[in-house]
Structures are given as C-alpha cells and as structure tokens.
Amino acid sequence: MILNKTKSVIKPKSSTSKNTNNKQNATNTTNATKTTLKKEKREKETADKKALNVSYKKINNVKYVIQVSTSKKFPKKKTKTYKTKKTKFKIKKLRAKKRYYIRVRASKKIKGKTVYGKWSSTIWQKTK
C-alpha cells in the first residue's frame, strides 16, 4: 500500500505472470493509481463596483471551476460557472450592492475523464 499526498490509499495490482516485458509493467503501474484532488482553499476575495476578485492557492497541473450565485444553495437558474487555469480571477458584469456567494473547486482530465475536487467552503461577498 502507498499513501499519496491527498491521504488516499493506492493499492498496486498484482501481476500473476512472470513476464518482464516493460510495456506490461507500465500498464500495471498506471492501472494501480487512484487520483483524488484536494479541496480548494481560497486566499481572499475583494469587491469592485460591479465585479468580484477571487484568488486561491495554486495546485499544480489543474484547472479551476468557480461558481457565483445569488443564493446559498447554488440553483442552476441563479448560478454562473467559470473555468480558468489562473489562480486569480475577476468576475465581471455583476449588479452593484448585491450579495454573491462564491465557491471554487479543482478539475483535471485523466485518461479522457474529468475528475473534480471537493467544493471549497461557500462564502459571500457584497459588490460595492
């Protein structure tokens, strides 16, 4: 058993054949990896007149999904979703003097499938 950075257990698959072919060994090691992404941690949020600035800690080789909503529960009608590679993002075209709820998560493509991390804790910010 191997414990990776995200504290998830990786169990290598056992190979029953005694073939020492490099291609076979490579596929055994790639099948054994289990990938999970960490929960995203935001650093700070600031507000402009009709915009919000969001920044968060960097995780290597991932994209970020940012959701902004006027409701705590993030219903589809009241939610905007943004995707970016940057750790600082400015959300524009918002209404002034309105409360917005923000959450962030990491995403990564692995073998053609998109894997998502957990959502960060939801906080609110009011535009000026």
Note down, in words, how this protein is organized.
- It is globular, with a radius of gyration of 20 Å.
- A hairpin with a 4-residue loop joins β3 and β4 (52-56).
- Helices cover 9% and strands 41% of the residues.
- Mean pLDDT is 79; it is low at 1-5 and 14-33.
- It has two domains: 2-32, no CATH class; 42-126, Immunoglobulins (Immunoglobulin-like), CATH 2.60.40.
- The longest helix is centred in the N-terminal third of the chain and has 11 residues, at 22-32.
- The protein has 128 residues and is mainly beta.
Give the N-to-C terminal Cα separation: 52 Å
The CATH architecture of the largest domain would be Sandwich
- The secondary-structure class comes to mainly beta
Give the number of DSSP strands: 10
What's the tally of helices? Answer: 1
Radius of gyration from the alpha-carbon trace, in angstroms: 20 Å
